[in-house]
């Protein structure tokens, strides 16, 4: 009822607008509809990066906000002084700490993505090959952990991996180890955490790709005498490539910038760039340096991946 | 063939165990009497009692629910408009920019999104005096921005699956754009709006990093509180909280499956008659 009256009102308003000859030629309603999301994203998504870039060129200062202004002017003396500080960028390359953090983030994200694929593939394959009724159930079982809090799932691993945690107790009891292993606050825990929390992001695109696969191809291969392992690598894997790429990107990109997992599961020596940015901002309160770290991360890590993803999307559409 | 499928079943089962073991451990230990997570002190509902007496947690949970509700609703409105514009408006100037901006928040690392929004808010406050300080309002803006991207993608994919003959028929019968949208398109994409809203709601409820950047003093959301508690040491009432959240989600998923089953059965019956 209210939708109908709302629609009637909009119709009325647009018919009133249409009466003004001035607006002929331009579809104002259409323009208004387009500009709402565009303006919102422009202001709250695009402009922020310009601000970050601007602040990365300023100097840290003890002030509120804690950075220097780039412009310095005096109208009476008629001068404008623009001061760009490239020191932050130079410092980023001078101090190997940041470079190490970028490289180590890429390493951790790459290895985790590989293991996510390794664990996710059999699950996706099994779901795609099961009966439609079991398929819904198994898919929901994959999605269920994804809907529960990310933070709490990471927290659950703290209880499992602790020195006197459940995994150690179990391994001690069945006699595989004699001393409890140090797992929490190591890189190993970070890998487990990333693989665990991002597994659904790998399984779902893999499932979509495998489900679309034409099963008669496998039958044909079998008839021609191919062993299952051969037809798996020569038919199934190539057919799943779009899903593999999509899944790997969905895991790799957030893993590179991860903060929560290394902060809770990693040790003090686990270097990840998301955590470095966080500490630079909240602990050192160096806003310009945090901005510089963000800009370099954006240009070096995120932008290339987005471009690859875009070009692939276009190919798929063609 | 038989051997391969046994191997497949075993590895997939191990995968499912990997997915569920931590959740089950959380649930079991939420009923543990002992304060030490690993020492089993017998069954007890003690930590649930502690949880409901902890006003800090209740306040944070209410704040998070409020933010999630408002952000999800705003995100559905903005995301639906964006999805509609991208899939039904044909070519227009700036389409490439909008479609780029819509998918970008999905792949942007959270630390960058959070930092950049905070710096924007600070710069805006310096320039126009708005927003004065940070709090619920800035968190809602931030959450709406990244959630609308998810809604737009969901709506766009639903619209691309949808046959546009119904919309064309309505237009041929003389429907104006607005009534076409409210009376034809909107009911058709309702499932996408519901799943987009639910997705946005959980994403907002779950967000720690962005909220930490853009919240002001005194506005602690539930993830921020959990994070600080967990970092300081083990707090068993978090187990109880996690169990309640898992239970709510599980009920929701079960309800969704039952609903889907009923719908497929109904369509099957309808097709037969």
UniProtKB/TrEMBL annotation, chain A:
This is Putrescine transport system permease protein. GO terms for cellular component: plasma membrane. Gene3D superfamilies: MetI-like. Its main location: membrane. It comes from Neptunomonas japonica JAMM 1380. InterPro entries: MetI-like, MetI-like_sf. GO terms for biological process: transmembrane transport. Residues 102-308 form the ABC transmembrane type-1 domain. Belongs to the binding-protein-dependent transport system permease family. CysTW subfamily. The keyword 4Fe-4S does not apply. It is a multi-pass membrane protein. It comes from the Bacteria. Keywords: Cell membrane, Membrane, Transmembrane, Transmembrane helix, Transport. The chain crosses the membrane at residues 31-53, 108-128, 137-158, 188-210, 230-253, 290-308. PROSITE patterns: ABC_TM1. It is found in: Cell membrane.
Automatic annotation (TrEMBL), chain B:
Pfam families: BPD_transp_1. Its main location: membrane. It is a multi-pass membrane protein. The keyword Transport applies. It comes from the Bacteria. This is Putrescine transport system permease protein. Belongs to the binding-protein-dependent transport system permease family. CysTW subfamily.
């Amino acid at each position: 009822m209210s939708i109908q009256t709302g629609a009637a009102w909009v119709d009325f308003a647009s018919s009133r607008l249409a009466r003004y000859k001035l607006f002929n030629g331009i579809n104002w309603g259409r323009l208004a509809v387009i500009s709402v999301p565009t303006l919102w994203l422009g202001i709250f998504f695009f402009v922020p990066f310009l601000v970050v870039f601007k602040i990365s060129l300023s100097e840290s200062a003890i002030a509120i906000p804690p950075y220097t202004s780039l412009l310095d002017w005096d109208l009476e003396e008629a001068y404008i002084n623009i001061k760009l500080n490239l020191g932050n960028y130079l410092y980023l390359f001078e101090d190997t700490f940041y470079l190490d953090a970028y490289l180590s983030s890429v390493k951790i994200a790459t290895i985790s993505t590989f293991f996510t694929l390794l664990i996710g593939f059999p699950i996706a394959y099994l779901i795609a090959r099961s009966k439609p009724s079991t398929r819904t159930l198994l898919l929901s079982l994959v999605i269920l952990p994804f809907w529960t809090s990310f933070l709490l799932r990471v927290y659950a691993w703290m209880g499992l991996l602790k020195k006197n945690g459940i995994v150690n107790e179990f391994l001690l009891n069945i006699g595989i180890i004699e001393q409890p292993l140090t797992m929490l606050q190591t890189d190993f825990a970070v890998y487990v955490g990333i693989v665990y929390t991002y597994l659904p992001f790998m399984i779902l695109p893999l499932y979509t790709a495998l489900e679309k696969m034409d099963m008669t191809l496998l039958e044909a291969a079998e008839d021609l005498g191919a062993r299952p392992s051969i037809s798996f690598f020569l038919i199934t894997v190539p057919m799943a490539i779009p899903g593999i790429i999509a899944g790997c990107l969905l895991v790799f990109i957030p893993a590179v910038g991860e903060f929560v997992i290394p902060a809770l599961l990693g040790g003090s020596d686990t270097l990840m760039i998301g955590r470095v940015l966080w500490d630079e901002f909240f602990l050192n309160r160096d806003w310009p340096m945090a901005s510089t770290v963000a800009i370099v991360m954006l240009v070096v890590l995120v932008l290339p991946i987005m471009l690859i993803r875009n070009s692939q999307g276009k190919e798929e559409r063609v | 063939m038989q051997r391969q499928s046994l191997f497949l079943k075993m590895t997939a089962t191990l995968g499912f165990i990997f997915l569920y073991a931590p959740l089950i451990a959380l649930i079991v230990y939420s009923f543990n009497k002992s304060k030490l997570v690993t020492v089993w002190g017998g069954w007890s509902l003690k930590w649930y009692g502690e949880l409901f007496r902890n006003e800090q947690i209740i306040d944070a949970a209410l704040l998070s629910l409020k933010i999630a509700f408002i952000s999800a609703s705003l995100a559905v409105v903005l995301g639906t408009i964006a999805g509609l514009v991208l899939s039904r408006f044909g070519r227009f100037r700036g389409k490439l920019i909008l479609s780029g901006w819509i998918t970008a928040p999905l792949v942007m690392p959270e630390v960058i999104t959070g930092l950049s929004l905070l710096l924007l808010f600070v710069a805006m406050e310096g320039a126009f005096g708005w927003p004065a300080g940070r709090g619920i309002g800035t968190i809602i803006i931030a959450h709406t921005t990244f959630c609308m991207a998810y809604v737009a993608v969901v709506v766009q994919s639903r619209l691309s699956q949808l046959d546009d003959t119904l919309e064309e028929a309505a237009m041929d019968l003389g429907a104006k754009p607005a009534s076409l949208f409210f009376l034809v398109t909107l009911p058709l994409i309702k499932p996408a709006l519901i799943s987009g809203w639910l997705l946005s709601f959980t994403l907002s409820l779950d967000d720690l990093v962005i909220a930490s950047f853009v919240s002001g003093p005194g506005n602690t959301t539930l993830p921020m509180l959990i994070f600080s508690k967990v970092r300081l040491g083990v707090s068993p009432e978090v187990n109880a909280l996690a169990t309640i959240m898992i239970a709510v989600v599980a009920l929701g998923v079960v309800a969704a499956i039952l609903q889907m089953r009923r719908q497929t059965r109904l369509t099957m019956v309808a097709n037969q008659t």
